[in-house]
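Thread title: Can someone regenerate the structure for this chain?

I was given the following input by a collaborator and told the matching structure tokens would be attached. They weren't. Posting the sequence so someone can regenerate them.
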Amino acid sequence: MPPQPPGDGQPSRLQLAVIAGLLWLAGAYLRVPILVAPALAPFIADELALSQALTGTLTTLPILMLAVGAMPGSLAISRLGPRHTLALALLIMTIGSAARGLVPDAASLLLASAVMGLGVAMMQPALPALLPRWLEPKHLALGSALYMNGMLTGEFIGAGITLPVVMPLVDQSWRLTLLVWSLPALAVAAALYLPRVDHGRPDRRPAWLPDWRNPLTLKLGLLLGLSGSLFFGFNAYLATLLDQRGELDMLADALFCYNLAQVVASLVMLKLARSWVGRRSLILVMAVVSLAATGGALVLEGWQAIACATLMSFTAGILLILLVALPPLLAAASETGRLSAGNFLVGYTLAFGIPMLGGVLADVTGDVRHALAVMLAYGVLVLPLILTLDLRRPPDGQRR
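Best answer:
Regenerated them for you:
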């Protein structure tokens, strides 16, 4: 047996605590820099004279970049390894996010937002690829739940505490607010080099292009599109839906419940990840309930509709974690990065495209419910894929 490099082997409790903290913080930065934009959008639009379309692009462009940047992330993992890739991605994200607070005009703002989105996109496959290097197989599901809890909590705190907490501390400056949220990511990038454990280091440079012959690449991506299009789409159209129904006064409470539900979902998965991840029946249940709750939000009104939307957010959050946690369990360490990258490429392309298609239909008909109906129809269309998922890990060196 070849000697292990210094620092390899079983992590101590202190190392595991450091790893857990780093996974959570890195997960938070998957969403915080994206979700602060909607809160700051009125201030940015007023100073830079942005149109409604450009204001909306502050949020939608980074989501599109989550798909575009998946392949650069996979390439970086194959060349640099997941730890260096995650550190590089955090650096790129910080540069782009902080630069938004320094821009003089709309064009440079969009460029900075695209750079930020690229960094976040590269982080996505790097995190699941890093898990088998840092954690033993029995801890992989918990590791996925940890960084996903950070991500979903990041959605909530980025949208929820920017205006009431952060902006008053920086004299109501949206530019300084962006810097305050962005710069601590540099400390997270540096801290990634504290854990010395490294399980499963590949003997050769792994492939980076998605393996489209692996059915999980497309199937998990299509199902991620179900979860992502429901969550992002409903988030985008909720205000318009309430306004159409004459219930706009309920928007603040509705958004609070809607985003908090995802945090609760991630906390549930922290407790149950080891027993829930890898169970096809639970993926099916969460998808069905998400779609049923979406239908309820379409046909009901008032607090009943908001309760349905909140239930959809909760189950879509659990579904997201159940899907994202699969690549580290089902693929070899050298294959995890490109499987995850393929999933995110497909999933976030759909999470961007399906709500946009629905919005086009709503513009034609004048009824925002048709936008939500498009997302519901897509979910029903791909639902049978869950029954075909093979969640058994194949023997090393064999394809599915």
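The mean pLDDT is 87.
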